[in-house]
Design a protein that fits this description.
By secondary structure, this protein is an alpha/beta fold. 28% of the residues lie in helices and 31% in strands. It is built from 23 helices and 44 strands. An eight-stranded mixed β-sheet has the order 19-18-20-21-35-34-33-30, with helices on both faces.
Length: 859
């Protein structure tokens, strides 16, 4: 091979100019030595100086060398089959004997590594699971519980012989648990190192294991949530997943899994708020390892969603209240809208059949701001109190809702019967106001409507027969002739009303009963049931509190109408007018309604609406252009609409939520699920827009990340946030480091199997409000990654081989043949030159000091 001569420090050659000076000094120096003697000494000195100068110039002779240096890196982690390790050591012995490389070493590695010179020495190394504590105190063994390919190859690069053709033979399955082998590819390329991976046989273990457990970032207490548990199974099998919190079992669910990875959805509720550690356990028959059948994870749980519920009919609030409470909501039933600051304490507001005139303009503005700016949710449910001239049309609240209240029109097909108590107790002003009320109701009707009056004391009679309204003046005259006398008996009067309306074919048949309720007992409930079966609704107006108001309320309940209390006679006409308007207006549709899904939505997922019984009424609305119409009636009228309003959401349900129009719904098994899921879909979104705190496990450490923003969305930089870190019984305050704009991080290594929890601390830069929004996080170390038995990572090994010029599964001849690879060997001449300079210097001294030597040389 050709040699190349180079000088590495050519600047030193300028010192050769000192040689003439040396000769000049020699010739001009006075001395007793003879001329020949002096010239010889000067020659020795010149040679010595020249040798030093040339040595300083660092002359080097380079020549090609094809001697091979090889490092055998043997993976002995648990995922590698034991017989593969034995085969690999035998292979190393064979190639060492056959190819006899100039330099070789063996690295035995798993989680840690050790270097040996021979296979015999390798066989003496202890290979087992000793735990992480043993790694720092005992270097005589290799830990099987992990695989650090990066560290093994990094040390291999350092051990390769200089001036040799460099080879690394990697025996591994490529499944690394720590480090990144790809990070060393560039270093291997620049050093001219070829890596030859030998694919290890995976440990033949028929073992199932938990790969990962994922939870929502934040959840609410008692809120249904879905946990995703990813498990690996070597074959199809039946598994059982149990989840416990603080030692108490929450749920156990069974699954049939296929071979490979399976994502299992587990539905559960977490009962308590705060940082809740969860223990996930998988049970599989004949599973050889239980270490990898358990996973631990921490969930940050917020308080229950808080719902403000206003019900227009106070004694009917129990239905929705109980349904939402059982679903995990904290329900506060109130009769008024609180101020805006107090509204922010709630996650959603439910307004059910609330009279518009009971909500002030300021309260409506507060609700609008609560939804639009704060992100709260609003559910508006209809009812008989939400329509009419005094309803929500053109109000602030209507602007907030996803549908408009339709303008009032007269209903074409109705029959109204007024039943007036004309007993002696009604004598005087009461009977006069009652007749005025009947005339007022008549005045609201049109010619196509049916109208009649039944007057009763102990016996009923019909002053105005039930027939279409043609001559109001005639009917008014007949009403005016009613006189008070006798005792009260309601039952026969209702029987007459029933017979008058029973066979009348109109969709809306309504009765207004006026009395104090002081009557003889009878089978009222049975009679009212027959009336309802004939689609007859009975409302009652109770005069004063001296009779039997309880009976009057019961009659309206059985008749599925409304009950009014007239404390004074002059209030009777107003009550009749209000009730008649409700009956006449078309925004009130009282007929059986089927629920039809128009637009499927996730908020109603899993609800069988086809099994839902009919609703008995709704108010007519018109969906707004950008609203989402989810449910409609069989005629296509909007029943459930929803839209986004600013930061929040609003829902409009045009029927009611109680035992009036939803009398059958409240008994339906889907009632609670329907309203709980719909309510959750509008509740204020969890989390903060300015504080994001998370924790995760990365390799052998817990990593906590914190992002802080201003209300305007700008990053908060140059802060000094601290975390209160708890490991076992030890607690400390640790500074977080800023890693990017607005982002801070803390990495805490695991110590043994202790969980690491962290909570943000309040300080100069961090307010207590920010601490509350951040919450707490706990990270668990988990089982060793080597217990994740899987197939070899051929992709990684192939990339490493091709990137470095090696080959996957190469033959020994290909590895140990230089194949054109040549290492440059260096031979430095400076030691020779310095030796020459020393010899010449010593000869100079010897000849100058020894007359005998000079005489011998001169002779």
């Amino acid at each position: 091979m050709t040699s190349i001569f180079t000088i590495e420090n050519s600047h030193a050659l300028w010192l050769i100019l000192l040689l003439p000076l040396l000769w000049w000094l020699s010739s001009n120096t006075k001395t007793t030595l003879g001329r020949k003697h002096l010239r010889l000494l000067t020659a020795f000195r010149a040679v010595s100086l020249l040798a030093v100068i040339l040595g300083l110039a660092q002359p080097i002779i380079r020549y090609g060398n094809q001697d091979i240096s090889v490092i055998y890196a043997l993976d002995v982690s648990r995922s590698v089959a034991a017989d593969f390790i034995d085969k690999s050591l035998k292979w190393i012995d064979e190639v060492e004997e056959r190819h006899n490389p100039a330099h070789s070493r063996i690295i035995i590695f798993g989680q840690n590594r050790t270097v040996v010179s021979s296979t015999e020495e390798a066989k003496s190394i202890t290979i087992a699971d000793f735990g992480k504590d043993a790694l720092s105190s005992d270097s005589s063994h290799v830990e099987q519980s992990g695989t650090n390919l990066e560290a093994a190859i990094d040390e291999s690069l350092a051990l390769l012989g200089a001036d040799h053709v460099k080879r690394i033979v990697l025996f591994s399955d490529g499944n690394q648990t720590d480090g990144s082998l790809l990070d060393l590819v560039q270093s291997a390329q620049s050093s001219g190192v070829r890596i030859y991976p030998m694919v290890a046989d995976s440990a033949q273990v028929e073992d199932a294991w938990i790969s990962n457990v994922r939870l929502p970032e934040r959840v609410r207490a008692m809120e249904p949530m879905t946990s995703l548990v990813s498990v690996f199974s070597p074959s199809a099998a039946s598994v059982e997943i149990s989840i416990s919190a603080d030692g108490g079992l929450i749920t156990t669910q069974s699954y049939v899994v296929k071979q490979g990875f399976n994502d299992l959805q587990i539905n559960l509720r977490l009962p308590e708020a705060g940082s809740v550690p969860l223990d996930v356990l998988m049970t599989v028959e004949n599973d050889p390892y239980i270490e990898n059948n358990r996973a631990q994870i921490s969930a940050w749980v917020e308080d229950k969603a808080k719902i403000l519920y206003l019900e227009g009919v106070s004694d009917a609030s129990s239905y929705l209240n109980e349904a939402l409470s059982e679903a995990g909501f904290e329900v506060i039933v109130n009769d008024r809208i609180p101020k805006y600051d107090d509204l922010k304490l709630y996650d959603a507001v439910v307004l059910s059949d609330v009279l518009a005139n009971t909500i002030s303009s300021n309260s409506m503005k507060d609700i609008k701001r609560y939804v639009q700016d704060y992100g709260g949710g609003l559910i508006f449910a209809g009812g008989e109190n939400t329509f009419g001239d005094d309803g929500y049309s053109n109000s602030i609240l209507e602007d907030l809702l996803p549908a408009d209240f339709e303008a009032q029109e007269k209903r074409k097909d109705i029959a109204l019967v007024i039943a007036i108590d004309r007993s002696y107790s009604m004598k005087g002003r009461k009977i006069e106001y009652a007749k005025e009320a009947a005339r007022a109701s008549l005045d609201l009707l049109e010619e196509q409507h049916y109208f009649g009056v039944v007057a009763f004391d102990s016996q009923p009679y019909v002053p105005v027969p039930v027939e279409p309204v043609k001559s109001k003046r005639k009917a008014e005259a007949l009403i005016s002739r009613i006189q008070a006398s006798g005792q009260t008996n309601i039952y026969p009067a209702l029987g007459i009303v029933y017979r008058l309306l029973r066979d009348l074919e109109v969709p809306t048949k309504h009765v207004i009963l006026l009395s104090d309720g002081d009557t003889a007992p009878a089978e009222y409930e049975r009679l009212l049931k027959r009336m309802r079966d004939s689609n007859i609704v009975v409302s009652t107006v109770t005069i004063g509190e001296g009779g039997n108001p309880g009976l009057m309320r019961q009659l309206s309940d059985w008749g599925e109408g409304r009950n009014y209390l007239a404390l004074s006679a002059d209030s009777i006409p107003q009550i009749f007018t209000e009730e008649t308007k409700k009956v006449v207006g078309t925004s009130l549709v009282e007929e059986p309604i089927l629920t039809v899904m128009k637009q499927p939505t996730g908020s109603l997922a899993g609800i069988d609406l086809q099994s839902a019984p009919p609703l008995q009424g709704h108010i007519a609305v018109k969906a707004k252009d950008t609203a989402e119409t989810i449910l409609v009636t069989q005629q296509g009228a909007p029943l459930l609409t929803r839209w986004q309003y600013g930061l929040g959401k609003t829902v409009f349900f045009t029927s009611d939520v109680k035992n009036r129009w939803s009398a059958d719904w409240v008994q339906w098994e889907g009632y609670g699920k329907f309203w709980s899921q719909l309510t959750r879909s509008v509740t204020k979104q969890l989390g903060s827009t300015t504080v994001f705190f998370s924790g995760d496990r990365e390799n052998e450490a817990a990593v906590f990340n914190l992002t802080l923003l201003t209300e305007g969305g700008s990053y908060r930089n140059s802060l000094s946030p601290k975390l209160r870190v708890t490991v076992g019984q030890e607690e400390s305050s640790v500074d977080m480091s800023q890693i990017s704009p607005g982002q801070y991080r803390l990495v805490v290594p695991f110590i043994g199997q202790e969980a690491i929890s962290a909570t943000l601390e309040a300080g100069e830069d961090i307010s207590s409000e920010v601490v509350d929004m951040a919450g707490s996080r706990a990270i668990f170390p988990g089982f060793p990654a080597e217990y994740r038995f899987s197939e070899p990572n051929l992709e990684l090994l192939s990339v490493v081989a091709s990137s470095t010029g090696g080959e996957l599964g190469a033959r020994a001849e290909e590895i140990f043949t230089p194949s054109g690879d040549t290492a440059q060997k260096r031979f430095a001449l400076w030691p020779v030159l310095m030796t020459l300079a020393l010899i010449s210097f010593l000869l100079d001294i010897f000849v100058r000091r020894s007359s005998f030597a000079w005489k011998r040389l001169s002779s």
